Amino acid sequence: MAPLPSDETGEFWVFGYGSLMWRPGFEALERRQARLVGAHRALCVYSFVHRGTPEKPGLVLGLDRGGNCRGIAYRVAADKRDDTIAYLRAREQVTMVYREAWRRVWLDDDPQKNVRALCYVVDRGHEQYAGQLSLAEQLHYCRQGHGRSGANRDYVLATVAELESLGVRDHDLHLLAQQLKGAHGT
Asked: Are 105 and 14 in contact (CB under 8 A)?
């Protein structure tokens, strides 16, 4: 892969919209709420590794085109840059369903300030791209999915809990979480 750009200090930003919000797995100098314009968070990726298997896929989030997405921007120190990128590639690019992309994100506490952040955008041409599924289909995959990182249900519920802690409501994810909770009485 091509080298990734950084600012003049060597620091760079990473945008998290799913599990990177509640389990980044790397060290950051700052963690700030942010908004990306031009893509939205969607359960549009069949998970064959982290939350499912090829035989029983789960369903995980991807940044898909159109709309906007609220999430977390992390500022990473120059001396952690290479390790952070290697970690993210090992975590996010297991099956290459995402494309590494640099996008502008706006920091919530300073709406005039935007930074270029590394994002993982779904590759719509990849076999794991699920597209827009009905609530019933999403529920099916999230109930059956279990992979290297655990149960798909836990992934959805943890993401919704993090969104709630940020004051963000994602209607579709919240509806799915209610259905998943109802099935287990939690």
From this structure: no
DSSP per-residue codes, 134-147: -HHHHHHHHHH-EE
CATH for the stretch 12-184? 3.10.490.10
Kindly list the domain boundaries of the chain, sorted by start residue.
Answer: 12-184
For residue 183, what is the DSSP state?
H
With contact defined as beta carbons under 8 Å apart, do 42 and 66 qualify? no
What are 128-137's pLDDT values in tens digits? 999 999 999 9
Sort strands 114-122 and 98-107 into parallel, antiparallel or unpaired.
antiparallel
Q: Which two tokens stand for residue 44?
A: 């549009």
| Largest interatomic CA distance in the chain | 51
pTM confidence score: 0.91
